[in-house]
Amino acid sequence: MTIELTTWLKQVAQQRNPVWVDGCAYGETLLNKGKPAPWDDVGALVSYIKQLQGLLKSDVLVIDIARFYEFWLNSNPNLLAAMGVKKRLGYALRTLLADQTARDQLHEVVMAICTSCSNTPIVLSMPSPKLWIGTAHAKAKNIDQVEVSWEDAESGAMYMADFLRIFSDCSLSGILIEDGGLAGPQHDTHIRSYQPIFNVANHYHWEVSLKGCAPSYTPAPELGVAVAISESNSDAQGQILASECWRESVELPLAQDKFWYVIIPRDAVPEQVLEVLAKLREEP
To answer: What is this structure's pTM?
Structure first.
């Protein structure tokens, strides 16, 4: 049975501060000698995910789609070459997400994790359409970056929406759309560029979380965003733990009805990680 993300976070908050942990980079260092997670071996990956979750005890379990595709492209250079065949911005992302072999492998991974970790809400994390359509093009063309408009972002959202339908039979609680830095939506018009994704999420009863909006902007739920995550926006439901908290001892106040979003540094000390997470979970 699928767990409703926002309801789950509210239930946890009645007992203690909810903590949503991104331990992807940290897990690679701690459990896999700095190498990527074993995305090509479903059994090994599930074991890896469960071991990391057992250590971090995140209140939300994340499957990082971008990390899967980074691994996949490193192992499948022919796909990367195919992404760069045409000049049109968007062709690279469309080709990437349409690759059936990658789709089949990722679907098997997601299904296995959903089956094995059914007591925790599971969320698919992915770059925003605006970010992903640009990074896919840049990688395919071997360039640093490319200018992307919000009209381009809407095209990316359509490719991503089609891709997301392959997970219709997986017990997902939601999706997390991540923008780099503060380059995300600044007002409602920008948010509407993501509408194709919101439509698919609504159809499958997945709640959408958004990370990376401009500090002055909080998307309203009626636009399709159930959870906003930010470091500096006091209206966002998810508060990102500041990076300096890993370097020095600071007060960690959390407003009512909020949760912590924690990105563990790749080189974090295990004892410090457990100490920080325990402090964050203290009763409100």
So the answer is: 0.95
